[in-house]
Amino acid sequence: MNAWQPAIDVVNRCLRAGVGEFVICAGARNAALIEALARAEKAGIIRLWRHFEERSAGFFALGRTMETGLPCAVVTTSGTAAAELLPAVIEAHYQARPLVAITADRPAAFRGTGAPQAIEQVGIFGGYAFQGDLTEWNGKGPVHLNPEFEEAFEPGDEDFSKNTLAPFEPQKDRLDVAALARWLREDLFKGIVVMIGGLEPDEQEEVFHFCRDFGAPVVADATSGLREVLHGLTLHDADRILKAHPPGKILRLGEVPSGRFWRDLEHLPDVSVWSICRNGLPGLARESHVTRGPLSRVIPALGEVEPADDALDLLVGASGKAARVEELLESYPDSEPALVRALSQYACIGGGVFLGNSMPVREWNLFAQWARPLPTVRANRGANGIDGQISTWLGWTADIGDTWAVLGDLTALYDPAALFMLDQVNSDGRVLAVINNHGGGIFSRLPRLQSMSPRAAECMINPHHADLAGFAALWGIRHIRIHTIDDFDSFEPGGKMVLLEILPDPDQTARFWREF
Questions:
Q1: Residue 428: which region, alpha, beta or left (left: phi > 0; alpha: psi -120 to 50)?
Q2: Are 300 and 332 members of one domain?
Q3: Final residue before a domain boundary, out of 267, 286, 316
Q4: Which residue among 59, 244, 333, 395 is least enclosed by CB atoms within 10 Å?
Q5: 137 and 32 within one domain
Q6: pLDDT in tens, 246-274
Q7: Which residues contact 114 (CB under 8 A, 6 or more apart)?
């Protein structure tokens, strides 16, 4: 059977669903589909990216959905290539991103036979992706297409010149905010704090005005884009203050916050929690409330809210803690927190920042500069994993360049194939800043690590002596080491992409955290 017509059918289904970008990982099984996509690109209808490594390609596609808000498909051949997309599909599920996984398959008769490149691909992503026709997909999370192809094909004369790309129209959530409005008015004397996680750019203005008018203390992650502009309402040292003095209510806006207190809420059932987020998931295993929908729609639907004047009591003493942080940063200038502060002063002049999970996003929230509002800040905070971070950054900023990624060393080493895309993206002015503390630094701060045996602690931290200069040389980018805060004086952003390796002083870092 000729695989050409099935390939044409897949492309046309995607065009009707508004899928205009495709990241392709080639193989014999999807050759017909790649030829059809190449013709659609030649007709000016779609945009193609190419990669050789499926896991990285999936995260690059995820980054494209972050930037455009539109679907991006990642195309694989059959077999284990399809399985490589699972981490990106999971992340897209929890971020409610329109990632399209197209996994070419052998005909159904091969399943269960042990034939080469034949695995059970149908339903491989479980509940993390919609499996079905694109016409039934709501567009608010990933979808999986698993077309079956014969290997042989004879191309027809399809040129796609008369085809068009339909607009992408995700299904809108039905909003009922009456109960939320009542919750916001009731029992404010018990105290309320607004915790803001990652926001979409079109949500930030509504959230800013809401927080300013509401007047409650705020804990804003850098990924909200509002950390600096809401500084006057910010609750410094929020994790410790809130644990010692839990408010009666927490209003969460956007993605799950990165701070420790959000996890502490699992054990504070008397604190009433209401989340407003795109994916409709509460982010807690305990009882709480949730409203699904973009904040750009939910907040205007609430109308005018009464100021939460009594809640401001929690800000008492917060300024003193902020001053103490400044003293520590000055006392230990080559510690990891101090170098993150210096790094943030350079990164804020770029076109955007991507923060890695584990320590970077937490240290940035605690110690990054406050004086200058940052451009857009992104992170993969759906499942909070370290998969594909460089790839997501490149996908998100493919056309921008002049952006920063701030990652941990193990995170960077986990995505070595990502920079294959450099020849296809705008690489001018890019900075990949890697905080190299020679292992999983976040685990070294776990209290329970102190009670573990030396061998178990070693397994937790995964110490290493990897030379990141070799990583940079592999992809032909500049490499600069930063050991002290004075080393930043010789660093000039701009020009060819650079890998900026941050090597904090371990003794100063340990002393900083002991006194923090």
A1: beta
A2: no
A3: 316
A4: 244
A5: yes
A6: 999 999 999 999 999 999 999 999 999 99
A7: none
Please count the helices (runs of H) and the strands (runs of E) in the chain.
19, 17
Domain contains 199? yes
pLDDT value at residue 145: 98
pLDDT at 224: 96
Q: What sections of 221-335 are H helices per DSSP?
A: 238-244, 260-264, 295-302, 318-331
What is the Cα–Cα distance from 179 to 131, expressed in whole angstroms? 34
CA 225 to chain centre: 13
Q: How far apart are CA 208 and CA 436, in angstroms?
A: 35
Q: Is pLDDT above 90 for 41? A: yes
Structural domain tally of the chain?
3
Most confidently modeled of 11-20, 368-377, 492-501?
A: 11-20
Q: Are residues 271 and 239 in the same domain?
A: yes
Please indicate, yes or no, whether residues 66 and 184 belong to a single structural domain of this protein.
no
Task: Specify whether 100 is located in the same domain as 213.
Answer: no
Range of the domain at 507: 319-515
292 and 337: one domain?
A: no
Q: Is residue 154 part of a domain?
A: no
Q: What residues does 377 pair with on adjacent strands?
A: 353
> Are 433 and 405 spatial neighbours (Cβ–Cβ below 8 Å)?
yes
Taking all residues of the chain, what is their mean pLDDT, rounded to a whole number? 93
Whether 107 is in a domain gets the answer yes
From 58-72, 130-144, 152-166, 413-427, the region with the lowest mean pLDDT: 152-166
Beta bridge mates, 502: 435, 482
Q: 118-131 burial, b if ≥16 CB within 10 A, otherwise e? A: bbebeebbeebbbb
CATH value at residue 21: 3.40.50.970
CA dihedral 309, 312, 313, 317 (to 10 degrees): -160
Pairing outcome for strands 218-220 and 498-502:
unpaired
Band of pLDDT at residue 153, cut at 50, 70 and 90: confident
Q: Are strands 289-292 and 377-378 parallel, antiparallel or unpaired?
A: unpaired
For residue 66 the two structure tokens come to: 């972050």
- Confirm whether 224 is domain-assigned: yes
Would you tell me how many other CB atoms lie within 10 Å of the CB of residue 447?
6
Is residue 435 helix, strand or coil?
strand
CATH number for the domain spanning 224: value is: 3.40.50.1220
**Considering the entire predicted model, what is its pTM?**
0.95
Instruction: Give yes or no for residue 26 having a pLDDT over 70.
Output: yes
CA distance 354 to 62: 13
Tokens of 289: 């409330």
Q: Are 508 and 429 part of one and the same domain?
A: yes
